[in-house]
Amino acid sequence: MSVVSRLLKPFIRRDCDSAPLWLRLMAEVRAAANKRNPKWRPPARHPIDFSYVRPHHIPAINSLCQLFFWPGIDRKLIQSLLIFNSLISAVLCS
Question: Would 44 be classed as within a structural domain?
Fold first, then answer.
């Protein structure tokens, strides 16, 4: 349940077409590593699911923000993003 007591879908959007740079690079590395293996086939690509921020995401988001953007960031600020995300979801789903 979200902060506004609305049941949210498991994800916002599922993208089956995009191939971000990192995924393309990893596919090239795998292909280069297996170019001499005639039985090797590239693995199937999985879709990218864009999901809502959930409480179990907060520690990872907080760590990324501390590492790359804001060394002194407070956990409460990140938790406020969770509340904001739920409120935006409620508006979009209305």
Answer: yes
Range of the domain at 85: 52-94
Residue 33 lies in a domain: yes
Both 76 and 38 in one domain: the answer is: no
What SS3 state is found at 13?
strand
User: pLDDT tens, 9-55?
Assistant: 777 888 999 889 999 999 999 999 999 999 999 999 889 888 888 88
- The answer on 68 and 34 residing in a single domain is no
On whether both 69 and 40 belong to a single domain, the answer is no
Residue (of 49, 89, 81) closest to 62 by Cα position = 81
Q: Interior CA angle at 2 toward 85 and 16, to 5°? A: 65
Instruction: Say how far apart CA 35 and CA 18 lie, in whole Å.
Output: 24
* Cα–Cα distance measured from residue 68 to residue 48, given in angstroms and rounded to the nearest whole number: 23
Task: Yes or no: say if 86 and 7 are a contact pair by the CB < 8 Å rule.
Answer: no
**pTM, full prediction:** 0.50
